[in-house]
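#struct-help
A.M.: can someone run this one for me? Single chain, 300 residues.
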Amino acid sequence: MVNPGESYYDLLNVDENATPEEVSGSYRRLAKVLHPDVCKDPEAEELFKAVNEAYQVLRDPRKREEYDLALLQAKDSQFGDYYKGGKRYRDPNTWYYAHMHQGYHSKSSVTDSENIPQKRSTSTPRILQVFLFYASLFMAITILAQLFLLPWLEGTSANEALNAFEEGNHWMNEVEYQKAIECYTESVTKLPGFSEGWRAKGLAEYKKAETLTGMGLKSSADGYYSESVKSLLQAYKAFPDDYQVISRLGYALAATGDYQNAVIYLRRAQSLSQGDSELSKRLEEALKMTGTSVSARGST
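D.P.: on it. Structure tokens below:
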């Protein structure tokens, strides 16, 4: 047990005039006895730490000189009665409190230390405490992002999507289908749930495909027909009764060779708008390609 009143010289069992060799020799003898691997006494580890602390100071000439000065100062201080070792490179009051807290005091001193605040110990492993701290921090950041950052980003994306959509409408009016497609693509990329953007994109892609087909560039048009199908299928979820969406979807499907599905959407479009000769013609062609009999067509 470490006596709070012991100086470093007392701990190493040497006098204040001891040579460096005497200090080192005494430390080695004590270390052989007090090292935790050798001595299993519960207090051995703390006592060994105190001895090692004393040795680290007294073996260094500069630190020893400063320590000797601290000893002289402490003898006349208010702490000299219970710790003649002075500061020990720490405030004497802190040193005394630490040892009282850790139990380095006699039974007679227990009553005197009852009023000293005690730090509550915890059984939670340090690594778990660190993990819980960072987990809590991550959760806090996530919540803040959901409350403030994400709505702001979504609002920014929505504005950018609308601007791109308006620009696409401008290019459609100018019959610049390629530029319109690029703007509408940007619009739905910024705001994937923007149904109007998907509708406009699909119709622009169909227009571009029809233009290329009219120029005899069917191979170049095929990609636009395929993209038109994808875009119009997205739009169809929000516009199940939109004649233009449904009819162009049927036309684009037929152009890609998917006549079975083309017939489904063309019939749906026919039910919404009777008398469209172009629609009727394309439906007849799609039915012919599927091999549907005349009687079956008439009974539909």
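A.M.: thanks! The mean pLDDT is 80.
D.P.: also worth noting: Residues 8-113 form a domain with the Helix Hairpins fold (CATH 1.10.287.110).
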